[in-house]
Design a protein that fits this description.
By secondary structure, the chain is mainly beta. It has five helices and 19 strands. The strands form four sheets. Strands 10-9-12-17-14-15 form a six-stranded mixed β-sheet. Strands 11-19-18-13-16 form a five-stranded mixed β-sheet. A hairpin with a 2-residue loop joins strand 14 and strand 15. The termini are close together. 45% of the residues are buried.
């Protein structure tokens, strides 16, 4: 995987060579969102695997409270499903059934809410105390990029601490592409070193970090990859808890945009039959999801960002290396 680059393909927050703490005046003063992760950090694989075969998918989510790095040198307690932030990615097709066993091995009550499940929340989304488990069974009736998250109060804190993930339900006519990735965007509100979040920052909507797949700089060290002429699909789900995204790839344009269960553009054609259209941003509110497709015409290093630049400068960037 490639390292830091220069030139237009390597542009991003702080590309003038200054780290964020050189600039002052913000909550990220002491965080360098241009530095690589620590050597022991394993980059989250962004590749989205095809939906598994079969129509019934049985999975176990175990709540674990652990410690992880969120940005270079920034380690905090995190609350997770299966020790991962985001939690495990699930994928299926319309009509599939998911049987999820939630097991709480944490030190406090936790829960789970699948937005893809069209069910009463009374039992399956209830908070369970440490040592207990529940079964959450639902059939996915509609396609989309769906969020799941802990629904225990304070919900903002539990989500900010890491209790979220994505369930992708393929549209029935979804074509195969050359590369397919998933990015889950989230915010972190840093408390003291032994605290998973700061409720005052959450209430003020002042995140310290905005990340793709749980770490602010992992895809600057270990970029996504593609080849010239390939069709690349990137799914994006916004976990929040409170901020949306304006997902953009510097130097590229989207000919297909799928948002919240429907196409805005498909191979350059809009809903009214117009041809030759393109898009520059996938805009998503908190909890929304979708995907974009693009084909790179030239080799180089392309930067993907949250085009809300305040969030990009808190870590919501990464690279795509195109050969």
């Amino acid at each position: 995987m490639g390292g830091e680059g220069s030139g237009a393909g390597g542009m991003g927050p702080g590309s003038d060579g200054h780290s964020m703490h050189d600039r002052g005046g913000g909550p990220t003063d002491a965080i360098d969102v241009l530095s690589p992760p620590s050597d022991d950090v394993v980059t989250r694989d962004p590749v989205l695997e095809p939906a598994p075969t079969g129509r019934v998918h049985r999975v176990t989510f175990t709540v674990e409270e652990t410690v992880d790095e969120l940005a270079p040198g920034v380690r905090r307690p995190v609350w997770t499903y299966n020790g991962e932030m985001p939690g495990p990615t699930l994928r299926g097709k319309v009509g599939d059934e998911f049987v999820v066993t939630l097991r709480n091995e944490g030190t406090m009550g936790h829960s789970i809410d699948f937005h893809a499940g069209d069910v009463s929340p009374d039992e399956v989304m209830r908070t369970i105390p440490p040592g207990e488990e529940l079964e959450y069974r639902f059939t996915v009736k509609r396609a989309g990029a769906w969020l799941y998250h802990c629904a225990t109060m304070p919900m903002t804190g539990h989500v900010a601490a890491g209790m979220f993930g994505a369930l992708i339900v393929d549209p029935p006519d979804l074509p195969e592409v050359d590369r397919e990735y998933l990015l889950v965007e989230s915010e972190s509100y840093l408390g003291a070193e032994d605290e998973p979040f700061d409720m005052a920052k959450i209430a003020a909507e002042q995140p310290d970090l905005v990340m793709f797949n749980g770490h602010a700089t992992q895809y600057r060290r270990d970029p996504l990859t593609a080849r010239v002429g390939e069709t690349v699909r990137i799914w994006v789900v916004v976990a929040g808890p409170s901020d949306g995204t304006a997902f953009h790839v510097v130097g590229s344009q989207f000919d297909t945009v799928y948002k919240e269960g429907g196409y805005l553009l498909r191979d350059g054609r809009d809903a009214f039959g117009g041809r030759g259209g393109g898009a520059q941003v996938l805009d998503l509110a908190p909890a929304q999801g979708g995907f974009v497709e693009m084909t790179f015409a030239e080799p180089g290093r392309y930067t993907f960002v949250d085009h809300s630049f305040a969030d990009a400068e808190k870590g919501a960037t990464g690279f795509i290396d195109v050969e």
